[in-house]
Amino acid sequence: MRRRAMLVGAVSLAAVMIAGCGDRPQGAGDGKAGEKLRIGIVAKNLGSGFFDAVHKGADEAAATLGAEIIFTGPTTPTAEGQIETLNALIAQRVDAIAISANDPDAVVPTLQRAMQRGIKVISYDSAVAKAGRAVHLAPSSDELIGQTVAQLAAELAPEGKGKIAVVSATPTSTNQNSWLAQMKQALPQYPGLEFAGVVYGDDVADKSYRETVALVKQHPDLAVIVSLSSVGIVAAAKAIEDQGLTGKVKVTGLGLPSELVGYVRKGVVPKFAIWNPIDLGYAATQVAAQLARDANPEDGTEISLGRVGAVTFDADGVGAMAKPFIYDQSNVEQFAAIF
Amino acid sequence: MIQNSAARRDLALGVIVVLLLASVTAAFPQFAQPGNLAEILDDSAILILLALGQMLVILTRGIDLSIAANLALSGMLVALLNKNYPGLGVAPVLLIALVSGTLLGAINGLLVWRLKLPPIVVTLGTMSVYRGVIYLLSGGTWVNDNHMSPQFLGFIRYELLGLTLLSWLAIFAVAAFAVVMRYTVLGRNLYTAGGNPAAATYTGIDPGRMQCIAYTICGAIAGLCGYLWVARFAVAYTDIALGFELQVIAACLIGGVAIAGGIGTVAGVVLGCLFIGVIRNALPLIGISPFWQMGINGLVIVVAAVLSARRREDKRAILEAQAA
């Protein structure tokens, strides 16, 4: 894996150097074509395990790309703090900036100023409005999330057969509903699974707990409960544990490693998915570096993300990195320390 | 007279709860099994405790909107305590939850009593303040089950004669409240202060002081429930029990506590809680749409409000009853 990443990095580096000889470097790149690229990675705030992991991934990518990472961010997650941070990066004349925005609109004027000075701007994780960036790298997409949770359910159901049910947030939650719709679309790939229905925990612990208890009473033969809400999955796991159904009814879905590590250890949630912040930092750095080296993502060409795969950006400049990463016994402890 | 009408009302609500149970059982036979009923009691225990506290406040013409925020703050406090000192055991946890809740409740009480501020304004403010403090305490992070010690989680789940300790706690509180409200000076003074503050003042009862006492007791209960809630759902974060104060107030209203003060019985409040408990456990089982669930809950509250409004019309009856 690592060797392939190195190879990809080396090839792209070589390609860029060849290209660099022919084209006149632009903007901030002036007069330092041979120098290292400098990429500013802006976190929502410093001291967060999630963004420390992003930093780790960015450093990993930078090592393969021959770039230098300036990892920075405000001490508290505010737009004002990010604007100061961005001004500092502009003053340092970095080649590219990748930002996870605390406010999609507030940082736009500052980022536009950066772009006027030839700095390539992308957003990752939390998007910036279209006017303030070239592209946005989303950690995943509704479709990929839906496919992943359907796959998780099929893997957890005994021999891929059984009833599955969903503990959602509120009935009107937009992202929950679109993930759910994508999951249902992916279900026909797993003919052994029978979809028993959706209950709504309203993103509050007590209702999610109660609805989960009702689910297992209504469907005594339930095999898997999927929850795509961070409150829902924790409450559903506790309910299943309290009902003494650990191992019989498996809980899975989207959640954070630090919140689910206990349930993974106990086997209530054998595995679950969420994006991998290390991969996200790695991929954001790849995109930022390639943009700084004159790649043009707007025409819909694929951009390589090294070991993570590749991304294509749509008309709005939004692209999805990869399927959510799967966490289980083998890796959850390591990531629980991160986020 | 009022005792009779209150008793009649409690009886009617009791019959409704039993009918509700019967009709759900008809559709879903497992519902009335002892194990399931014990689970409903367990699920309603925190609501019962909180509603008893809220009843005191409403009796004295107040309202406590900060009850769920108090619960969440005290819950986060003990969750963090347990996370950092897992070896302490349950006794200090209970103590700190009670002390924290009492202090937070007393803040409400003193503001209402000493500064004569409207209760709804005071508690609307402290509701947000308490939530804010949780964020400051926790930095927005969650405390999860793997941070909680087995004693912390196990205490409320310990089973005695088929019921959990959590259920027994609620039963004990109901018994204590029934005695205090009916047979002690404190209980009678609370009714009097809310039923007719002017008359209460003439008899030497300070209605403001009674309000303060009501808020403080309500706060202590909310603090205790903070631990119970966190241990039951094995998670603590800023938004736990968000909006739960409305369910607590709804349980009081359904149970016949008059929002204008002075009227309300322990039996009524318990039945109001069980009513909500049965409904919210039954509806998902029958598979009724979540929108209907909200609608049914709302309808019940409106009907209860209409009923208690009609009862307020024979207002003189309160005075007679109090005089008796």
Provide structural commentary:
The complex is a heterodimer of chains A (339) and B (324). Chain A is an alpha/beta fold. Chain A folds into two domains: 2-139 and 276-322, 3-Layer(aba) Sandwich (Rossmann fold); 142-274, Rossmann fold. Helix content of chain A is 43%, strand content 20%. Chain A contains eleven helices and 14 strands. In chain A, β1 (37-42), α2 and β2 (67-72) form a beta-alpha-beta unit. Chain A is elongated. With 324 residues, chain B is mainly α. Chain B is built from 14 helices and four strands. In chain B, the strands form two sheets. A two-stranded antiparallel ribbon of chain B has the order 1-4. In chain B, α2 packs across α11 (244-254) and α4 packs antiparallel against α10 (207-233). The longest helix of chain B has 27 residues, at 207-233. Residues 316-320 of chain B have low confidence and may be disordered. The A-B interface holds A 170-171, 197, 199-200, 202, 204-207, 209-211, 213-215, 217-218, 231, 234-235, 238, 242, 258-263, 265 and B 30, 36, 39, 43, 142, 144-146, 157, 229, 232-235, 239-244, 280-281, 284-285, 287, 290-291.
